[in-house]
């Protein structure tokens, strides 16, 4: 068995006593309470380097000044000489560095078990984040970082370049950058959504590229930290009709029930018959290409148009994300699916981006009797009941509280509404949108079995006032955007949502 061996080069910390080496280190000025019992942490200067031989059987450590890399036993498959170098590289906006950039070699090394890196820094401990390049070696993403006494610490799966710093500027910084994103897409699968589903599907490659590179405008320059790990799952708007037989609602009891979609779109020859319940791209899935990721999302997010005409997007989202241990219950006393049918999708500390796309208002019913065609209580035309009997619907506060309960940090909630608001109101504050006269729910005098459309574009279709969804954005606040489903090109829609994600990924507080 090979004995673990670690050595430090002449340009390392240990050469500080040699006059020939010159001044090569500086100390952390305010290392915090963790360093009171020992010597101050030392940040290496540019040009310093250290190497060490790490054993496959026993693991090992390599240190450069107070920078430390620990590889556990079994972390590498063969004995590996590892080198850490403080390199001459200036990080560009949006990043601000609290340390030099460190190069970890051999480049491209992957660990069978996560290694731990510890880097001392000078900077704000509340926002200090380790940024680590992704597999391309050029793009920086945020690691899940903890700070202890002037050190930033994180686990790593592969080698690249790294520094400690922030991607947030100004007075709106609220914490560390976040490199994990979970996206739940609620796609209306009623019979009027063919064009809209196609428009969303066309944007998935753009969405994946931006999230993987941090480049919002496609100019080749990072605008925010890339997402180290992205998961996307899809649910439909069909939550059944409480067991009542209603036209267009074939599965009358529970519908799709907020369960993540696994069936591939049969109309697309490239789609498989079934997929895992969510697509994932990032360091934890090194064998998955961007193309693989895009294909799965496109195949599972194109749900078709066989769903119930009573759309319940808010209830679908809430049931998808709520664990069975919650006090919240759903139709017939059932529980949420977050730790059941949808287990594994939602991570505890990720950014959660919820995207709701529908051409009608929400009809999440607290009293399923509203769907009974023979009801003596709810006697209006079936198509108008959700408008006329809003007391039979769950209050919006249910969804505000339910979404907030999914995150320990409310700043990690991002909400994107893509619904029937007039195109010129896209991106406006929710209170402004719902105050517009076109958002008033009135019966269409030309077609008395429907509401007057709030937007109607030839070749794309019509949509109706989504007042409840806009109210959710208003009451939830924070990182929310409301966009119009009537736009022919969804690029501005997706970019508005990505901008909100980018802000939170950088460590910015929601307003």
Describe this structure in words.
The chain has 511 residues and is of the alpha+beta class. It is built from 8 helices and 23 strands. The protein has 2 domains: 5-172, Chondroitinase Ac, Chain A, domain 3 (Sandwich), CATH 2.60.220; 180-382 and 401-418 and 466-505, Rossmann fold, CATH 3.40.50. It has helices spanning 194-213, 290-301, 313-321, 385-388, 397-404, 430-435, 467-476, 491-505, and strands spanning 5-8, 25-27, 42-44, 49-54, 60-64, 67-71, 80-87, 96-97, 101-105, 110-120, 129-133, 140-142, 146-148, 151-158, 161-166, 180-187, 229-236, 279-282, 351-357, 413-419, 455-457, 461-463, 479-484. The strands form 5 sheets. Strands 1, 4, 7, 8, 9, 11, 12 and 15 form an 8-stranded antiparallel β-sheet that branches. A 6-stranded mixed β-sheet has the order 18-17-16-19-20-23, with helices on both faces. Helix 1 (194-213) packs parallel to helix 8 (491-505). Mean pLDDT is 90; it is low at 1-38.
């Amino acid at each position: 068995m090979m004995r673990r061996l670690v050595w430090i080069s002449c340009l390392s910390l240990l050469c500080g006593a040699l006059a020939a080496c010159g001044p090569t280190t500086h100390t952390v000025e305010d290392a915090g309470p963790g360093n009171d019992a020992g010597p101050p942490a030392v940040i290496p200067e540019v040009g310093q380097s250290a190497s060490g031989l790490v054993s496959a059987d026993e693991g090992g450590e390599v240190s450069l000044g107070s920078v430390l890399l620990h590889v556990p036993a079994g972390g590498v498959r063969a004995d590996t000489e590892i080198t850490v170098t403080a390199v001459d590289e200036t990080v560009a906006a949006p990043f601000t560095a609290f340390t030099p950039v460190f190069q970890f070699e051999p480049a491209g090394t992957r660990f069978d078990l996560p290694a731990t890196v510890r880097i001392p820094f000078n900077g704000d401990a509340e926002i200090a984040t380790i940024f680590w390049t992704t597999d391309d070696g050029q793009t920086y993403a945020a690691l899940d970082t903890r700070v202890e006494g002037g050190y930033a610490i994180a686990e790593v799966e592969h080698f690249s370049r790294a520094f400690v710093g922030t991607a947030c500027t100004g007075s709106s910084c609220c914490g560390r950058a976040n490199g994990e994103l979970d996206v739940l897409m609620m796609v209306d699968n009623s019979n009027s959504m063919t064009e809209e589903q196609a428009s969303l599907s066309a944007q998935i490659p753009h969405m994946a590229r931006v999230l993987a590179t941090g480049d919002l405008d496609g100019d080749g320059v990072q605008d925010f930290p890339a997402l180290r790990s992205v998961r996307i799952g899809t649910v439909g708007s069909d939550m059944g009709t409480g067991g009542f037989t209603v036209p267009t609602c074939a599965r009358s009891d529970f519908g799709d029930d907020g369960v993540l979609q696994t069936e591939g779109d049969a109309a697309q020859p490239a789609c498989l018959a079934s997929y895992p319940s969510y697509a994932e791209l990032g360091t934890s899935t090194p064998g998955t290409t961007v193309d693989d990721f895009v294909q799965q999302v496109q195949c599972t997010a194109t749900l078709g148009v066989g769903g119930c005409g009573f759309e319940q997007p808010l209830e679908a989202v809430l049931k998808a994300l709520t664990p069975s241990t919650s006090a919240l219950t759903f139709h017939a006393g059932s529980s949420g699916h977050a730790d059941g049918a949808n287990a594994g999708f939602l991570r505890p500390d990720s950014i959660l981006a919820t995207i709701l796309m529908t051409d009608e208002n929400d009809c999440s019913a607290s009293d399923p009797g509203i769907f009974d065609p023979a009801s003596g209580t709810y006697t209006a035309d079936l198509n108008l009941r959700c408008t006329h009997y809003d007391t039979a619907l769950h209050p919006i506060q249910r969804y505000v509280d339910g979404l907030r309960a999914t995150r320990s940090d409310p700043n990690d909630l991002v909400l994107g509404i893509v619904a029937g608001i007039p195109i010129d109101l896209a991106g406006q504050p929710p209170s402004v949108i719902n105050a517009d006269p076109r958002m008033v729910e009135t019966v269409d005098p030309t077609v008395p079995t429907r509401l007057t459309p709030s937007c109607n574009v030839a070749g794309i279709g019509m949509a109706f006032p989504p007042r409840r969804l806009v109210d959710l954005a208003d009451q939830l606040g924070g990182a929310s955007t409301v966009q119009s489903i009537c736009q022919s090109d969804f690029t501005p829609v997706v970019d508005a949502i990505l901008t909100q994600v980018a802000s939170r990924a950088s460590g910015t507080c929601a307003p």
